[in-house]
Design goal:
Helix content is 29%, strand content 25%. The chain is of the alpha/beta class. The strands form two sheets. Strands 1, 10, 11, 12, 13, 14, 15, 16 and 17 form a nine-stranded mixed β-sheet that branches. Strands 2-9-8-7-6-5-4-3 form an eight-stranded parallel β-sheet.
Length: 366
């Protein structure tokens, strides 16, 4: 919790700008909607904190049935553990003695788990864990088609699993694989087919590992864009979806069944030409790597350019009554990277400020 910039009860349109606004009612509805989707499935939710970057929302997800959390970086995992979350998967490789020391330190205070994709890294983590007198849980990271990190499926991943299982200080718990190359495919049929192919590689690799008598209870994967296919695939035990909690413009355009709960409130600062409005939100307050943000509630208004501090909006109708000082809501096309630009959420319910939350995981790139 941070000192409130404006007091609770402030109408959202009276907030100073730029302001990262979270509609907490929609967030809670999204959490409930995902929990309801998974209620009749054996797959459980392990949501990714890289989206919202706060322990308070992680606890809301866990209260709704999540088995733990995912983190992209050690800094995010440390933030979660400091915030009282014990079961955390760092869904990335942790390389180098400094980071391995931090990982092992977390194992003293949590049930930390980490992805590995090669034997030498596993050996170093095991040695550090033994020296500290702890055990680090491990998932073998399997490349299911994204061609980023991950051991190749089947025999290469099976060999790595054997090496992990034989390394004192480590506990092999299963496998993970992320079909991130598929989450934004627009054709639902194609996405479903390819997601099932990716999960087939992951679950068949897990079966090979079990044939060796090794523990492989966790089979973890998936994202918001593929959640309906990954979570329903036989043998997948965990879903790593993150963006569903707040959503963004790119996922909205794909028809995901969750509400957009995150906006950036902007002010009009200039209107010198009838069809052009200048806002006080630029690249320092809203990301645009997935496309320019959307203007909400103003028909025919379109962001055409972002500079560092300004957003340029073109109007189809010059009679639209937007003047300096008026407020406009922008929907980011990518929530994760927009959130990372801000220090705090202005948490709103029914159009009124409820509280302000520090974004404790912001900038945790190490």
């Amino acid at each position: 919790m941070v000192a409130l910039v404006e007091p609770p009860g402030t109408p959202v349109l009276e907030l100073d700008t730029p302001a990262l606004v979270m509609d907490i009612g929609k967030v809670e509805a999204n959490i409930a909607r995902m929990a309801a989707f998974l209620a009749d499935k054996t797959c459980k939710l392990r949501p990714h904190v890289k989206t919202h970057k706060t322990a308070v929302l992680a606890h809301k997800q866990i209260a709704a049935g999540a088995v733990g959390m995912c983190a992209a970086k050690l800094g995010e995992a440390e933030m979660l553990v400091e915030g009282g979350v014990r079961d955390v998967l760092v869904a990335n490789e942790i390389i180098g003695p400094k980071k391995i020391a931090r990982l092992v330190a977390l194992a003293r205070h949590s049930d930390i788990m980490v992805a590995v994709d090669e034997a030498d890294n596993a050996a170093l983590i095991g040695a550090a864990a033994r020296a500290a007198g702890v055990t680090v849980r491990v998932l073998v990271d399997v490349n299911v088609g994204q061609n980023r990190c991950g051991a190749e499926p089947y025999e290469p991943a099976r060999r790595l699993a054997r090496q992990v299982a034989e390394t004192a200080g480590l506990r092999l718990c299963g496998v993970m694989g992320y079909e991130g190359h598929l989450v934004f495919l627009p054709d639902r049929e194609e996405k479903g087919r390819k997601a099932r192919e990716a999960m087939q590689k992951l679950t068949e690799t897990a079966a090979l590992i079990r044939e060796d008598g090794l523990e492989c209870g966790i089979v973890s994967g998936g994202g918001t864009g593929t959640h309906e296919f990954t979570a329903a695939y036989p043998g997948v035990t965990e879903l790593q979806a993150g963006s569903y909690i707040t959503m963004d413009g790119r996922y909205r355009d794909l028809g995901m069944p969750f509400d957009t709960a995150l906006t950036v409130l902007a002010s009009v600062v200039s209107r010198q030409r009838p069809n052009t409005v200048i806002l006080d939100v630029g690249m320092k307050a809203i990301s645009h790597e997935f496309g320019l943000p959307y203007v909400l509630g103003v028909p025919g208004a379109k962001v055409t350019r972002l500079s560092e501090e300004h957003g340029i909006v073109e109007l189809e109708d010059p009679s639209v009554p937007l003047r300096p000082g008026d407020r406009v809501f922008l929907l980011p096309t990518h929530g994760d990277t927009t959130i990372n630009l801000h220090d705090r959420y202005f948490v709103v319910r029914d159009g009124v400020l409820e509280t302000v939350w520090d974004i404790a995981g912001r900038g945790k790139s190490r």
